[in-house]
Amino acid sequence: MVQISCRDLCLGYERKEIVRNLNFEVCSGDYLCVIGENGSGKTTLLKVILGLDKPMSGTLELCGGLRRRDIGYLPQQNEFQKDFPATVREIVLSGRQAKRGLRPFYSAQDKEIAQHYAGKLGISDLMGRCYRELSGGQRQRALIARALCAADKMLIMDEPVAALDNSSAVEMYDIVSELNEKGMTVVMVTHDSAAVRRNAKTVLEIGNRIFCGSTGDFMALSPEES
Ligand code: ADP
């Protein structure tokens, strides 16, 4: 089932065009890796999917019953205020905010889900700590847990292994793969070409070269890079 349908999409800011005529679809259960050099528009594309930025032209539609509140988003860490005066618990729980609707408090289920993902990311002991006191790697784990709390149908991650050491990165990839095997759609911006080869079902490359297709076709096209 198609969840994102993108037709003749042009991305840019003011008059400056960054990406032209992008056409692709993301289907339920896909694991799409978005690659391309710095400044090629990967983060901008994620923001257009999330409705945080508007395309210059063309259309990007959410379909198949996907709503923006079904999507969990891990932004690039430098965009998330490092001196945010909140506890790790508040940060992780805030992933449930869109599900809370008009209720003034988080439900017991919201709290259970937050505990569950904090446990998976190994940060249960840090829940009472202030986010701004954490190391870069601990912050990244908190933000990943937050994104997982929000991800009912789709998980969008912008360079998730930034700030993670090797073993933490392996754990993170395992968690994401496990969710993907259970049906979660994954859209991941990454520079980690080994992870693309290992995990991606489809690849979208933007920049000088535009490619959208299976990981196998991508590797056949550019064996030296992958
Ligand atoms: P990537 O994620 O591939 O590194 P980005 O989507 O972050 O690329 O940025 C693409 C281009 O758009 C860059 O040249 C960047 O400087 C520019 N850009 C990003 N955000 C804005 C913005 N809010 N206003 C103007 N230009 C922007």
Concise synopsis of the structure shown:
By secondary structure, this protein is α/β, with parallel strands linked by helices.
How would you describe this structure in keywords?
226 residues; alpha/beta; Rossmann fold; three-stranded antiparallel beta sheet; 8 helices; 25% strand; binds adenosine-5'-diphosphate
Task: Provide structural commentary.
By secondary structure, the protein is α/β, with parallel strands linked by helices. It folds into two domains: 1-66 and 153-226, Rossmann fold; 85-151, no CATH class. The chain is 34% helix and 25% strand. The protein contains eight helices and nine strands. The protein has helices at 42-49, 88-93, 97-100, 108-120, 136-150, 166-181, 193-199, 215-221; strands spanning 2-13, 16-27, 31-35, 57-62, 71-74, 154-158, 185-189, 202-205, 211-214. The strands form two sheets. It has a six-stranded mixed beta sheet with strand order 5-6-7-3-8-9, with helices on both faces. Strands 2-1-4 form a three-stranded antiparallel beta sheet, with helices on one face. Strand 8 (202-205) and strand 9 form a beta hairpin. Helix 4 (108-120) crosses helix 5. 35% of the residues are buried. The model has no long low-confidence stretch (mean pLDDT 93). The site of adenosine-5'-diphosphate has 10 residues, from helix 1.
List the uncertain runs: none
| Coarse shape | globular
Quick one: biggest sheet? 6 strands, mixed
Total domain count? 2
Beta fraction: 25-35%
Tally of DSSP helical segments? 8
Q: In what order do the strands lie side by side in the largest sheet?
A: 5-6-7-3-8-9
